[in-house]
Structure of Pectinesterase inhibitor domain-containing protein:
Amino acid sequence: MELKIATLLIFLTVFGIAEAATVKPPSNFIKSSCATATYPALCEESLSPFAKTIKTSTAQLAHTALAVSLQRSQSTQEYLNKLKRFKGLKPRERSAIGDCLEVVSDSMDRVSKSIRELKNCERVKGQEFLWHMSNVQTWVSSALTDENTCTDGFGGRAMEGRIKTSVRAQIASVAHLTSNALALVNNFAKKH
């Protein structure tokens, strides 16, 4: 899976999607598009570095939002892998982290498929567009559901503490970016 993500990031870089992550003010297009997202400030912050590539393309905006979500998922996966090796974990914490790792991996797979499928949407029209777009929307929505269920294993008072707080923060970050990506995918679908 990590090789697929590395390949995807190289692809995005070659085709100009992944630019240097310097903070730039959001373009008016990004700002107005992000107004419909669940987390507009995060949307603007995460997509503004790619304004030159996005320009005024709703397709490129959706692609970039998905790529940003995928990249954050990969970082979260790496974090969880390191955390799982921590010697001071309770058995239940280790198990919950393992469950989250599985969920994040599934989520990454769905977002990766969505990125590839979104490319197909740009080449077709009519019913074929609707079919491909339905796949994208279903997969991104499923990825979001996965991310939101990840922290279920940390329920109850026995799991309170820094590990739970840390994992929840990581997963919330991914879920917020994925939620924004879904909103931008839906916006692209409406305007196509």
Observations:
- The chain has one domain: 57-191.
- The first helix runs from residue 2 to 14.
- The chain has a mean pLDDT of 85.
